[in-house]
Amino acid sequence: MRAVMKPFPAFLLAVLAACGTANAPPSEGPREGNSTVNGQAPVATTGLDATRMQAAIAQAERLGPLNAMVVMRDGETLYESTFNDGPPLSRAVNIKSASKSVLSALVGIAIERGVLEGVDQRVVDVLGPEAAANSDPRINDLTVGHLLSMQAGLERTSGANYGAWVSSSNWVRDALSRPFVADPGERMQYSTGSSHILSAMLTRASGRSTLELAREWLGEPLGIEIPEWLADPQGIYFGGNDMRLTPSDLARFGELYRLGGEIDGQRIVPSDWIEESWTPRTRSPWSGESYGYNWFLSQAGEYAVNYGWGYGGQMVFVVPELDLTVVMTSDIDVERGSDHIGDLRALLRDHIVPAAAAGGDFTQS
Question: At what angle do helices 192-206 and 124-131 cross, to 10 degrees?
Answer without folding.
Answer: 110
